[in-house]
Amino acid sequence: MSNQEQELKALLTNQEFVLPKERRKILERRKRLAQAFAETENGIAVLSDFQDNSRYIYSGSLGNMIGLYTSALKTDSAFEEEVFNCILPEDLLERHVLELRFFRMLQSMPVEERPYYNMVCPVHFRMQDGSRIPILHRSYYCETLPNGSTWLALCLYTPFIETKVGGQIVDNRTGQALLPEIYAQIDRQLLSTRETEVLALLAKGQSSKQIADALCISVNTVSRHRQNILAVLQVSNTAAAVEIGLRLRLIYA
Questions:
Q1: Which of 43, 107, 165, 186 is the most buried (most CB within 10 A)?
Q2: Which region, left, alpha or beta, applies to residue 207 given φ > 0 means left and ψ of -120 to 50 means alpha?
Q3: Using an 8 Å Cβ cutoff, are 150 and 140 in contact?
Q4: What is the pTM of this model?
Q5: How far apart are CA 197 and CA 192, in angstroms?
């Protein structure tokens, strides 16, 4: 499990949850929708309950190809490790980085606007015989609580014709993907100017003492910036923070 995956899990499951009285009815409705997708598309549908830290997996023929032989399965984690284990590591990292961006973007929006967006990310399943299958992965944060916490998310997996289009965040009202400049605007809001400077120097292998001297600040201040960088990027070490910073183009090699 990567640092990015571990920290993304913590980000989603450690939210503050105050569920509505009709929570069971809402959950059952979402489960039926997930099952209908799997049956219709012969794909895989995963309904994640972040409050309960559990997931419901529904699979068609695609699920059978990776060993999911049951049509419905509840497990004790909100994330679909069974599916993640089949995704190429590079694709999985891109998927987690995109979801971090997606989560941060939605957190900046009014609750009522969040259902209009979803995340689309092409990945590849690695099969036991060594072959690779292109898969279209989509994520919807389908139930957001009044306090802004994401309660339920729906992830869908279907085979598709491979293209050169990468992961995107899509406005469902228009069918249009967010423009690159919107991504850049979202990403720039993650870290302050000083934190970006610190991260750039960390990427060059400089120590806290060297960074303090270069920026004319104290070592304690550098340490605080480093801690905040890890918290914001949802990673647990400097190497992972640098990798995320490069992928989000907060810094450059």
A1: 43
A2: beta
A3: no
A4: 0.76
A5: 9
